[in-house]
Amino acid sequence: MIEVKDLVKRYSKNTAVDHLNFHVQKGQIYGFLGPNGAGKSTTMNMMTGYLAPTEGQILINGYDVAEEPMEARKCIGYLPEIPPLYPDMTVLEYLRFAAELKQLPKNERSTEIERVMDETRIKDMENRLIRHLSKGYKQRVGLAQALLGDPEVLILDEPMVGLDPKQIIEIRELIRGLGQKHTVILSSHILSEISSICDHVLIISNGKLVASDTPENLGSYMKHTDAMELQVRGSKEVCEQAIELLKQVKGLEVKTTTATLEDVFLELTNEENNGNPKTTEEQEKTERFSLRKKLRKTEEKEFSVKETKSDEKEEK
Ligand SMILES: Nc1ncnc2c1ncn2[C@@H]1O[C@H](COP(=O)(O)OP(=O)(O)OP(=O)(O)O)[C@@H](O)[C@H]1O
């Protein structure tokens, strides 16, 4: 479906993409993962024909992006990192304009616009000015323009960036749904974002491909670094019993830590509130006062322990 062969992009002395090779197969969601400045946007801009490579070749459905750009572009819907939206247009005006730019047949435009608005769930917003939309809805409008003409491949550059957690979940669901009909390539620098929706992950660093595998295989590759933090709350005896039990698990290294002042603080506040919601200002003042007293006592205890230790040293 997509072949990227020995792709290079140099900006003067800076090599942004360095002999990149990969294949994208039909009907899968690909994650393009890498830190800021790794070369993701540059690669995507070259795949969509917006930027000319310094060296190398990109084939989309057999069409060479450099030699048959119109044919190659027809296969691709692109949502750039900053969606090319016009804030003074309504959603409908903008989609009509995008359909014209994509040279969709005139008699099919209205049906196609209705289809993409339904697919991205923006029909309710069709008469709103784009400048009045939330970031999440702007992103949906960007996706809608990418879907015009029903391209086989969708290339989405950081589609979740700047969205709040609820919007991220909504866009993620939307992309998952799109993945059933289209081949999707999306970029991100956040692993969890990619691994939750992608079938395959391409990791890029300093313009080079450093890994290409399923999220599961990449996860097991990292298995040896798995660490788990377990908190045991209870009396000293209960904690000691738990540690002894854990030590019986083969291959498990148990490291214990003592409570921090923050833990003590949380413990004390729990005890103070006793599960009841705070009510009057007076009650809160009393609680804060007794909390401060308890904290001071804890600090005094710690201090006296330290003092005893340093006294012991001096005696020795
Ligand atoms: N127009 C340009 N002129 C010069 N250097 C550029 C240009 N565009 C990108 N670069 C450089 O190319 C490298 C790759 O940038 P690119 O934007 O492709 O990375 P990215 O992985 O998409 O990063 P981000 O996640 O921050 O968007 C960076 O070092 C960047 O500074």
Q: What does it look like?
A:
Belongs to the ABC transporter superfamily. It comes from Laedolimicola intestinihominis. This protein folds into two domains: 2-225, P-loop containing nucleotide triphosphate hydrolases (Rossmann fold, 3-Layer(aba) Sandwich), CATH 3.40.50; 261-315, no CATH class. Helix content is 44%, strand content 19%. It has eleven helices and ten strands. The strands form two sheets. A six-stranded mixed sheet has the order 6-7-8-3-9-10, with helices on both faces. Helix 6 (165-178) links the parallel strand 7 and strand 8 (183-188). The chain is globular, with a radius of gyration of 28 Å. Mean pLDDT is 81; it is low at 271-279 and 298-316. Adenosine-5'-triphosphate binds at residues 11, 14, 16, 34, 36-42, 81, 189.
How are the secondary structure elements laid out?
Blueprint: E1 2-11, E2 14-24, E3 29-33, H1 40-47, E4 55-60, E5 63-64, H2 69-74, E6 76-79, H3 91-101, H4 106-119, H5 135-147, E7 153-157, H6 165-178, E8 183-188, H7 191-197, E9 200-205, E10 208-213, H8 215-221, H9 236-247, H10 261-273, H11 281-315
Parallel strand pairs: 3-8, 3-9, 6-7, 7-8
Antiparallel strand pairs: 1-2, 1-4, 4-5, 9-10
Helix pairs in contact: 3-4, 4-5, 10-11
Residues 11, 14, 16, 34, 36-42, 81, 189 line the site of adenosine-5'-triphosphate (ATP).
Cα-to-Cα separation, first versus last residue: 78 Å
Structural class: alpha/beta
According to CATH, what is the topology of the largest domain?
Answer: Rossmann fold
Unreliable runs: 271-279, 298-316
Average predicted confidence as pLDDT: 81
State the CATH superfamily name of the largest domain: P-loop containing nucleotide triphosphate hydrolases
Strand order of the largest sheet: 6-7-8-3-9-10
The count of DSSP E runs of length 2 or more, i.e. the number of strands, is: 10
Coarse morphology: globular
Family: Belongs to the ABC transporter superfamily.
Keywords: ATP-binding, Nucleotide-binding, Transport
Region (Disordered): 269-316
Biased composition (Basic and acidic residues): 279-290, 297-316
